[in-house]
Write a structure and sequence with these properties.
Pfam families: PspAB (PF22742). InterPro entries: PspAB-like. Helix 2 packs across helix 5 and helix 3 runs antiparallel to helix 4. This protein has about 190 residues and is an alpha+beta fold. The relative contact order is 0.20. The protein has five helices and six strands. Strand 2 and strand 3 form a beta hairpin. The protein has one domain: Ribosomal protein S10 (Alpha-Beta Plaits, 2-Layer Sandwich), CATH 3.30.70. The chain has a six-stranded antiparallel β-sheet with strand order 2-3-1-4-5-6.
Amino acid sequence: MGFLDSILGRSKPKQANLDSLFLVPSAAIALETTLGYRPTGDGAVCFRAAAGAAFEETRAEVVELLRGTGEAPDVRLSDDGFGYSWIEIDREPGSGTEGLCTGLHAVNTALEAQGFGSGLLCTVVGFEGPGGRRLGLVYLYKQGTFYPFAPVGERQRDNMLEVQAKDALTGELPLEQDLGRWLAVWGAPGL
């Protein structure tokens, strides 16, 4: 940050550390041993779609790249009711989170490399616990941090489970400390 930026009150946004996504497999072990939540094999990247052929070409290349891997996960494109698009990766439950996180990292990296990083919102990795309850581990792209999201029913969340998950993940992941940034990602694929 330069002198003029500091006088005018401008600051540089925190850079995303996409390699943090590779910490999710060890965090998954912590969630399973402490709370009984196992990875579902589902993950998704949320972004604000850009207009134009360059964006459509990049998105198509990313989907083709994911489908062309040796494990060939199911890859889908979807839109939510909030104006965001999702690239969903579905793998077999129990297949581990390493391959899923590699795919999610590739999606984020490809969009960022082609100049669409400003449209990236978050990445979600799904977990399922006792009684079929869902928990999402959400990576905030612009903050470089994670937080747990536990939807219950329609437009309700289990705050107690989110706090328990946060406690279980302390030391495993860079966690978002500002609870105001723990956004509800209603309708996120896999949740």
